[in-house]
Amino acid sequence: MKSKFFLGLALLGLLIAVPACGGGAIKTEGVSGVVTLDGEPLAGASVKFVPLDGVGSESVGTTNEKGEYKLQTLLGAADAGTTPGKYGVCFECFEEVETGNTIMNADDEEVPETEAVNILPKRYALPDTSGFEAEVVKGDNTFNFDLASEE
Question: If you classify domain 27-93+120-147 with CATH, what class do you get?
Answer without folding.
Answer: mainly beta
